[in-house]
């Protein structure tokens, strides 16, 4: 199993549609894999690692423990059935194609890290997760 995000950083304008791409390859045929998109907020400014420094802003955004940020399921897809997480009910959110996350119009709270996880019972080897970073900007 090989999962990848071709565009690891996406910048979107507020109220514009957002599409986060995720690709996967399964080495052996079998039942449809389960695709899950999970949201993790960026690390709060108040959190710092032991020693207190980061090598890059990207490292700072993703390096705090989950207990220091908001974590929630966005959507899960098995076959053609898409199930939305509670926070996303009522929004035009879906998983298109194999594993592309369509968020509809971007909202302020959408900035953060999105993890695309693919689970396949027929292929347990390889990398089953990739991360996309989304930054939502207002009009200037």
Automatic annotation (TrEMBL):
SUPFAM superfamilies: Immunoglobulin
Superkingdom per UniProt: Eukaryota
Domain Ig-like: 1-132
PROSITE patterns hit by this protein: IG_LIKE (PS50835)
Cited InterPro entries: Ig-like_dom, Ig-like_dom_sf, Ig-like_domain-LISCH7, Ig-like_fold, Ig_sub
Gene Ontology annotations for the cellular component aspect, listed alphabetically: membrane
Protein name (Swiss-Prot/TrEMBL): LSR protein
Protein's organism: Vidua macroura (Pin-tailed whydah)
Gene designation: Lsr
């Amino acid at each position: 199993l090989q999962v990848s995000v071709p565009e690891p950083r996406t910048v979107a304008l507020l109220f514009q549609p957002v599409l986060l791409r995720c690709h996967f390859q399964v080495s052996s045929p079998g039942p449809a894999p389960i695709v899950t998109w999970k949201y993790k907020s960026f690390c709060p400014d108040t959190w710092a690692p032991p020693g207190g420094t980061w090598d890059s802003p990207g490292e700072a955004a993703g390096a705090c423990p989950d207990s220091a940020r908001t974590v929630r399921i966005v959507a899960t897809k098995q076959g053609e059935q898409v199930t939305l997480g509670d926070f996303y009910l009522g929004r035009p959110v879906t998983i298109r194609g194999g594993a592309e996350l369509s968020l509809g119009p971007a909202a302020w709270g959408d900035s953060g890290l999105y993890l695309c996880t693919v689970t396949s019972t027929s292929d347990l080897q390889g990398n089953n997760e990739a991360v996309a970073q989304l930054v939502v900007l207002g009009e200037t």
